[in-house]
Design a protein that fits this description.
The longest helix is centred in the middle third of the chain and has 14 residues. A hairpin with a 2-residue loop joins β8 and β9. The protein has one domain: Spore Coat Polysaccharide Biosynthesis Protein SpsA, Chain A (Alpha-Beta Complex). It is an alpha/beta fold and about 220 residues long. It is globular.
Length: about 220
C-alpha cells in the first residue's frame, strides 16, 4: 500500500480578518479552523501522516490549543519559512518515504470533502499529480488598452487544495530556487516541465480569509 502524507500549511496572520488571532486559530463552530482541516484528512484515512507547518512564533500557542480542546489527532509540527514555498519545502523534509504520495493543503480550507481528497490521491497515484478545481459562474472581463473584453467563463476554473503529488516528483520540483511567479504548488511543478491534472473539487471548499468567509463556513456546516 502506498504511504500517504498531507502537509497542511497554516501561516496566516489574520490581517484581513481584522483580528489579532491568526485566522487558522479562529473558532468555527467552537473549534479552531485548523483542527477542522486536520480532521478532514483523518476522516479520509486515519493512517495518513499529517504534517502541520506553522510559523515558529505560533507553535507554542498551537500546542496550548491542542491541550485546551483535547485535540488528539496525531500530527507532526514543522517550522514554516518566510514564503509559502519555503514552508512547503520544510514540510517535505519531514516526508521520509520517497515512494509515497503527498497532498499540500491550506490550513484555512476546513470544508474540503472526503470525496475531493480521495479523488486527488487516486489521480496523483495513477498520473503523478492532481489539483482540485471548480467551475466559475460569474462573468469575467479583462482590461485591455481599448477598454475591456469578455472572457468565456467556461475556459476558467477556480483552483483549490489539496494539490496532491507523487513525492519524488514534488521533491524534485521543490529542489529548485524560489521564484516570485510561484503562486501554488502546481506552478512549482509546471516550471520543471510537468502537466497538471485537474480533478473535480467541491464548491464548499472555500479558503477562509475574511469575516464573511467565516460566516459562510458556519452556514455551510449547519446544512
Amino acid at each position: 500500500m502506498i504511504k500517504k502524507y498531507v502537509i497542511i500549511v497554516a501561516g496566516g496572520r489574520g490581517i484581513r480578518m481584522g483580528n489579532e488571532v491568526p485566522k487558522q486559530f479562529l473558532e468555527l463552530q467552537g473549534v479552531p479552523i485548523l483542527m477542522h482541516s486536520i480532521n478532514r484528512f483523518h476522516l479520509y484515512d486515519s493512517r495518513i501522516n499529517i504534517i502541520v507547518v506553522l510559523p515558529v512564533f505560533q507553535i507554542e500557542f498551537w500546542v496550548k490549543l491542542c491541550v485546551e480542546f483535547n485535540f488528539t489527532i496525531p500530527h507532526t509540527i514543522v517550522e514554516g519559512g518566510d514564503q509559502r514555498f519555503f514552508s512547503v519545502r520544510n514540510g517535505l523534509d519531514a516526508v521520509t518515504e520517497i515512494n509515497s504520495v503527498v497532498a499540500i493543503h491550506d490550513g484555512v480550507r476546513p470544508l474540503v470533502s472526503v470525496d475531493t481528497i480521495d479523488r486527488c490521491f487516486n489521480v496523483a497515484i495513477s498520473k503523478g499529480n492532481a489539483v482540485p478545481s471548480v467551475g466559475v459562474v460569474d462573468s469575467f472581463r479583462v482590461k485591455t488598452q481599448n477598454g475591456t473584453e469578455i472572457i468565456d467563463r467556461y475556459d476558467l476554473c477556480l483552483i483549490q487544495t489539496p494539490q496532491t503529488f507523487q513525492t519524488k516528483i514534488l521533491k524534485k520540483a521543490y529542489n529548485q530556487s524560489w521564484n516570485s511567479s510561484f503562486t501554488d504548488d502546481a506552478t512549482v511543478l509546471e516550471t520543471i516541465g510537468y502537466t497538471i491534472n485537474l480533478v473535480e473539487g467541491n464548491a464548499e471548499n472555500i479558503k477562509i480569509t475574511s469575516p464573511n468567509d467565516l460566516k459562510f463556513a458556519e452556514f455551510l456546516l449547519l446544512k
